[in-house]
Amino acid sequence: MLPTLTWSNGWIWFIGVPKRYGVGAxxxxxxxEKAAAGELADSALFHWPSSEIISPxxxxxxxxxxxxxxxxxxxxxxxxxxxxxxxxxxxTEFNVRPCVYDVNLPIIVGMDFNVDPMCWIIGxxxxxxxxxxxxxxxxNTNTPDTLHKLIEKYGTHKGGFQIYGDASSRARKTSAxxxxxxQIASNExxxxxxxxxxxxxxxxxIADRFASTNARICNGSGQRNVFVDPKCKHLINDLRVRTYKxxxxxxxxxxxxxxxxxxxxxxLHKRFELTLKLPSSNTVGIVYS
Length: 289
What we know:
Elements: H1 25-36, H2 56-65, H3 68-74, E1 107-112, E2 118-126, E3 129-138, H4 143-154, E4 161-165, H5 180-185, H6 188-193, E5 195-198, H7 206-217, E6 226-228, H8 233-241, H9 259-271, E7 274-280, E8 283-288
Parallel strand pairs: 1-4, 3-6, 4-5
Antiparallel strand pairs: 1-2, 2-3, 7-8
Helix pairs in contact: 7-9, 8-9
């Protein structure tokens, strides 16, 4: 839009239907939600369900010919979570709730060391339940600056810190001088506050990390062990919209998609890795470690 509209003080219509995935789906949803919340200057959101426009006969034909969720999107103008996407077990209805910071519990930090944006999730493990009460989403930054932001917010924390993250942080650099791993390990303030570090020498297969994350979000018995505070908008959005490339099991990540859920997944896989146990040659069981 820039600079096309600025020189003439112009305006533009964005017209479309809600989509769970596909080209432009994430950007269109974010723009609509920001307009609805009053977060986009000089913007407004309007929508018209097809039931107000087309005939009942045409509507009934579409209903009978389409998947229920596709119909709700394209004819009901409803935003839905990306069911069947990477995090198919996530529900904004059941996994999003207020999560309270406790000064006496260990703070768990899951880190993805992308430079733009740098994405860290911040939470507490309460028994088997993990609650994400905060997130750091910072543009054009590096590890020392992000550590400074973390300490600025939680520098008086009494319960200590547990740090989890991308194993490639040992080698990949987000500054010109030291690896992310070394910068975190050598941070004197974190040392004084009490910190432990939990980084593997190599990353697990992506499919294994996704499976561990989904199992904690909601397992086969319907038990949910991961909850996210409503203010963690970037993590919630990532859980809702991250999908696979058509016909593959490769995540279809573009723009900001993928970094927040990776930060969450590094912790969940490390702490709750799914493993196969073979008690006999005829039995296979999946258990939580």
